[in-house]
């Protein structure tokens, strides 16, 4: 507190151009005084004054924060979140780094600016980037990268920080795509993340960031290229189906041949197969009438032989 000039029943106060003065009566805040000369009666009340040099914009600790709503027109504030780092500038000159919290400054002759940098994990997306493969096929790719700022000052020193990271990511992805033909790219698209991430990590110190992960979300081909690839894929699947069919037919024929050889060498097996054949035939016939003597199987066999001759 600064005491005014006291004359018997008067307190005379002079406020300089670069000052604000907080006026208290009996310990209670009354008003904020700007430059000028003020005279107060001191008979009934005790006047005290707190001088603040507004050439140093930050509010002194002596100012009770509870009176700030009463002087809000003369004060500006900023808040630094728990996941941020702040930087304080006076007239565009860096003063110091600000930890998380709320800060108050006088509105006066000195311009106050606070820049904050988010230190949480962030994500950058490349959406619909047109690129050309080694064999001159144009495609579009969606790519994503996660990173975290570890040196906030470096991000402030760079103009359009996000844009520069975006351009680096774009150039490295183009470099990878340009080295491969379309078929190779489609087979090795997951390797794009490894390539780009390794190249980005070479830039970590320059950008003051830590690149955490990256990956290809989509590879989008032109319409005519999709039709060509679908035709090729369909032809490949048909060829595979034909190969499987031929393989199964060969296996079946080989099995029949082996069975025939065994039946030729073993009469008992031949009779068993004959019984199996008659059983299957009888399943499809409602009633069979056989008269006369003789072997049943021979009679059925002769019956089948006659039907076959009649049908011819």
Give the CA-based shape.
elongated
Major β-sheet annotation: 3 strands, antiparallel
Helix content: 25-40%
Low-confidence stretches: 306-312
Measured distance between first and last alpha carbons: 130 Å
Category from helices, strands and their pairing: alpha+beta
Compute the CA-based radius of gyration: 47 Å
Number of helices: 8
Assess the beta-strand content as a share of residues.
25-35%
Biggest sheet strand line-up: 1-2-5
Structure description:
- The N and C termini lie far apart (130 Å).
- The protein has helices at 152-157, 161-178, 182-187, 191-201, 204-207, 223-265, 267-283, 296-311, and strands spanning 5-7, 10-15, 19-25, 28-33, 36-41, 47-53, 75-80, 84-90, 93-98, 101-106, 112-118, 121-132, 138-149, 209-220.
- With 312 residues, it is an alpha+beta fold.
- It is built from eight helices and 14 strands.
